[in-house]
Amino acid sequence: MLDIHVPLMLFVLVLFLVLLVVLNRMLYKPLIKFMDDRDESIANDLNAARSLSGNSEALHAEAERNLDEARSKASEIRHKSVEEAKVLAESRADNRRSELDKEYNIFIDNLQSEKESLRNSLLSQMPLFKESLKAKFSKM
Length: 140
Known about the structure:
Layout: H1 6-124, H2 126-139
């Protein structure tokens, strides 16, 4: 039947134990160390990401404040520019109005003088018109 060989069994047992020790030193310990280092690295990266995330939120809030401040300054500058443009346009319009008023007054004065000269001319020629009218009426 089956023979049990004790020296062979002892040899296999010793070989198994030696293999276990060798594998423990060469494979299992470095593998466990690698996995522990990897877990620690992942934990450190997560902590760094959380701190950067918190920091980025603060930076985002600061950027929003800066944008709001810039928008308000731009609005103030735009409003100031519009007001300055209105003042400038109003002064130009006033200058033009005054020039037009002067030209109108000169035109009115010229018109009055022409009216007077025409009236005087017509009055001076009135006797000729009377003579002309009398001649035409007499012909009729």
